[in-house]
Amino acid sequence: xxxxxxxxxxxxxxxxxxxxxxxxxxxxxxxxxxxxxxxxxxxxxxxxxxxxxxxxxxxxxxxxxxxxxxxxxxxxxxxxxxxxxxxxxxxxxxxxxxxxxxxxxxxxxxxxxxxxxxxxxxxxxxxxxxxxxxxxxxxxxxxxxxxxxxxxxxxxxxxxxxxxxxxxxxxxxxxxxxxxxxxxxxxxxxxxxxxxxxxxxxxxxxxxxxxxxxxxxxxxxxxxxxxxxxxxxxxxxxxxxxxxxxxxxxxxxxxxxxxxxxxxxxxxxxxxxxxxxxxxxxxxxxxxxxxxxxxxxxxxxxxxxxxxxxxxxxxxxxxxxxxxxxxxxxxxxxxxxxxxxxxxxxxxxxxxxxxxxxxxxxxxxxxxxxxxxxxxxxxxxxxxxx
Length: 386
Prior knowledge:
The chain is built from six helices and 16 strands. The protein is α/β, with parallel strands linked by helices. The chain has two domains: 2-137, Immunoglobulin-like; 165-380, Aminopeptidase, CATH 3.40.630. Strands 1, 2, 3, 6, 9 and 10 form a six-stranded mixed sheet that branches. The protein has a six-stranded mixed sheet with strand order 12-11-13-16-14-15, sandwiched between helices. Helix 1 (187-204) crosses helix 6 and helix 4 (289-320) packs across helix 6. The protein starts with 14 loop residues before the first strand and ends in a 6-residue tail after the last helix.
């Protein structure tokens, strides 16, 4: 199984963590802290669980004797009543609100090493629980150096140490043109052009790249996901161009797989994309039994976490490249059928063909090259080695 290269932790019981309350900040955020829980796990591990109202984005930093969890677009919550469990590495904990960003500052009894991906879970709502970011850690040296509480996890920027396999999916194709701009530009043509350019650049940077389609071919959504499985891909990138009832709307947007859409727009977009072949997104019947088992048990855990990491990095490099972003969060989530596999991945909406100016831009070789350069940077800086 592809997913066996990364371990997945079993969630067990935990108790609640004490918190230093800060004044409520006046700003609009889409996410809210719901609870904090901690406990001792086998192997003298400390478990910290951060529960939020919607799926969180996050970064970790490691100042001396601290762990700082940064949650963008999240509001502090002074109304929760957490308790500090005995026997953990946590000495005290505080919330710090900076504009629309919440930091959970964990003061530690001993320093810790950088938390490995196998010790991080991002869980979907279940029963009375909302979204939960679960961090397990032990005392040790080798923590990533950071002097600022607003630092982010260190990114890997060197050339790949091995030939990682990337599958690039040009959305739509053949009898399915995708959305069509007022000037007649077809989504399937734009994304195929970008996909070909992207493959060339990724190959030149030491990756092994496969296209789900290299020509004007129609593929079912399940076939696209299955190609990523067959190629034993380390990352799956699905390229699309958007349309919106408002012709003023423009900018890129990035999505990862979730059973529950992050907002109404994400829900509608997923429904539109999934309608390409009317695939059922609940049954997993298109895959072999072992893959279906992995999808149902692991997808919302390890794969979702790795996908989220890539998607946030991709959004960062798009913005660094001065590519305009659609208003809203950096990463959204919805049940896209094409992302339903054991391979980490994201769906990139490169812009809006329904916007006349952006339709013209998306057709130009220069802008396509700019998009490709940003995606290549996001892949090179993605941490495959976890």
